[in-house]
Amino acid sequence: MATTIDGKATSQAVRDRVAREAAEFIAATGHTPGLVTILVGEDPASQVYVRSKGERCREVGMASFHDQLPASSSQDEVESAVARWNADDRVDGILVQLPLPGDLDSKPVLELIDPSKDVDGFHPVSVGRLVANQPGLRPCTPAGVMELLRAYGIPVSGAEAVVVGRSDIVGKPVALLLLHQSATVTIAHSRTRDLAEVTRRADILVAAVGRPEMITGDMIKPGAAVIDVGINRTDNGLVGDVEYASAAQVAGAITPVPGGVGPMTIAMLLANTLEAARLRRG
Ligand code: NAP
Fold first, then answer.
1. Is residue 43 exposed (0-12), middle (13-18) or buried (19+ Cβ within 10 Å)?
2. Which of 51, 74, 224, 247 has the fewest CB within 10 Å, making it most exposed?
């Protein structure tokens, strides 16, 4: 039976470290790292997400700001909000909660964020730095995947890694992070021929698809580390992209859903906010 990779405990460990290091940073610089969440409209799920980001931020001793804009905001109004926070020195990280409502276009909004405050890591400058393996702010969920591998001592260098999914927010960045740690990386997607043949090569298998339990035990190499990024709401509750029961019989280590990658995202957002404060203030 596979070792359970505990995202809750690992997330707590990251948050404890961020709290310690934030306190040291404040003592050394007199500046409290700050994160602003910008929410347009009142989508209930988004409200829960931004509230918990704010709470977690305060828990680690960092400053939290919230900018609530009406759903009726124009593109200009949303972009002006970003510009205001770019200019506000109390804030080191800007997070625009997605999706934006109605016809608002998120792309120009995200591109307006000062790259030095881009704690979500979605700005083209951050993407370029990731591709070039230069220091910068990395997207939170992919960074969380890497932190889980690190925390559980799973060797990455030289390993065969297969990432299923090629989205800009998970699949591609996680593949690049694995590559930069010298894994041999394959990216699979909806057009991949014989997916099971590809996934069975993986020492590290990352599933970021958004299809409930599509990766089954027979698609996994015995002893592999399986990281399930998927979050799918079904009639049977929350499930991942991996069929946990059959996968756990074969894998060496596996993340549960919930309680695996999910809790890592906010932890890495806090780590990014502290990192942004450091990069911005030397
Ligand atoms: P996405 O943008 O919908 O991308 C899904 C990817 O899966 C695409 O690249 C798609 O291939 C590929 N795919 C779809 N069907 C496939 C199939 N049958 N075989 C192989 N590949 C297939 O999704 P995402 O934003 O990356 O999110 C993926 C999952 O992670 C979702 O469940 C999401 O909820 C979850 N998620 C969790 C967190 C977190 O834990 N905090 C954060 C972000 C996302 P094509 O490119 O060919 O269409």
1. middle
2. 74
Across the chain, where does the E strand assignment appear? Answer: 3-4, 34-40, 63-69, 93-96, 160-164, 184-188, 204-207, 225-228, 232-234, 237-239, 253-254
Rounded to whole angstroms, the Cα distance separating 193 from 264 reads 31
- pLDDT at 282 exceeding the cut of 80: no
Determine the Cα–Cα distance for residues 152 and 126; give it in Å rounded to an integer.
27
Which of 118, 120, 228, 241 is labelled catalytic?
120
Q: Which pLDDT does position 165 carry in this prediction?
A: 98
Please say whether the beta carbons of 164 and 188 come within 8 A. yes
* Residue 137 DSSP one-character state: P
Most ligand 1 atoms within 8 A of CB, residue of 10, 97, 167 to mutate: 167
Q: Which residues have CB under 8 Å from 169's CB, separation 6+?
A: 122, 139, 141
Q: Evaluate: CB of 190 within 6 angstroms of ligand 1.
A: yes
Candidate list 6, 53, 181, 228, residue with the active-site label? 53
Helices of type H across 113-185: 124-131, 140-151, 171-180
Tokens of 93: 């990280």
Which residues have CB under 8 Å from 171's CB, separation 6+?
163, 164, 165, 187, 189, 206, 208
| Entry pTM | 0.98
